[in-house]
Design brief:
The protein has 183 residues and is α/β, with parallel strands linked by helices. 31% of the residues lie in helices and 19% in strands. Bound molecules: zinc ion (ZN) (2 copies).
C-alpha cells in the first residue's frame, strides 16, 4: 500500500505548535505524508446557539470537501462540538468520508502546554484510528479507549495496543513501534 496522504485543516488562528504536533504525530505514527496544511471556514449554520456548540457531523462532512481524492482530512477545530445524544465530543471521525475533526477547547482546559499537546496527539491518533477502521478498545492504556473526560484522555497512552495495531497491519497500515504498546 502506498503511504497515506493527509490534509491537515484548521478553522482559526490556533497555536502553530498544535499544528506541528498533529503533523509530526501523523507522519511518525502512520508513516503518512502530510500533503497540505490549510485554514478553512466553518459555516455559521452549523452552530447551535441554544447549546453554544457546533454540530460535529456537519463540520466533518463540510471539511471532507477540502480533501483531494484518495487522501484523508483531519480538522483541528477551535470550536466546541456535539453530536445528538452526547453533551460534547472531543473528536469525530467519518470513515466513509475519510475525514475527521478534533475539537480543541475542552482539551485545552487548564494544565500545562505539555499536557495539552499530549492530549491533542492522543485525540489525533484516536480519530485517525477510527478513520482506518478501528473501533473503541477496552485494553487499558490503548489510545482507542473511549474518553468521556479529559481525565480519561490523560489516563490513556499515545499508543495502540497490540491488537489494534495488528488490525491495522491486516489492512496494510504499519504503525511505528513508538506508537504500539508492548501488550
Ligand atoms: Zn472514538
Ligand atoms: Zn486497542
Amino acid at each position: 500500500m502506498n503511504s497515506l496522504k493527509v490534509v491537515i485543516l484548521y478553522d482559526a488562528d490556533i497555536n502553530h505548535e498544535i499544528l506541528l504536533v498533529a503533523r509530526t504525530t501523523i507522519q511518525e505514527a502512520f508513516n503518512a505524508e502530510v500533503i497540505e496544511i490549510r485554514k478553512v471556514e466553518i459555516p455559521d449554520t452549523f452552530y447551535n446557539p441554544y447549546r453554544d456548540q457546533y454540530l460535529a457531523d456537519l463540520v466533518v462532512e463540510h471539511i471532507s470537501y477540502f480533501r483531494p481524492e484518495e487522501s484523508y482530512a483531519i480538522l483541528l477545530s477551535s470550536r466546541d462540538a456535539y453530536v445528538p445524544g452526547l453533551n460534547f465530543v472531543f473528536g469525530l471521525a467519518m470513515p466513509l468520508l475519510q475525514s475527521a475533526a478534533v475539537f480543541l477547547p475542552r482539551l485545552m482546559l487548564g494544565n500545562s502546554t505539555t499536557t495539552i499537546f499530549s492530549r491533542v496527539e492522543k485525540e489525533v491518533l484516536h480519530e485517525f484510528g477510527h478513520l482506518l477502521g478501528l473501533e473503541h478498545c477496552r485494553t487499558p492504556g490503548c489510545v482507542m479507549n473511549f474518553s468521556n473526560s479529559v481525565r480519561d484522555v490523560d489516563r490513556k497512552t499515545n499508543k495502540f495496543c497490540k491488537r489494534c495495531a495488528s488490525k491495522l497491519h491486516e489492512k496494510g497500515i504499519i504503525i511505528s513501534e513508538k506508537y504500539v504498546l508492548d501488550k
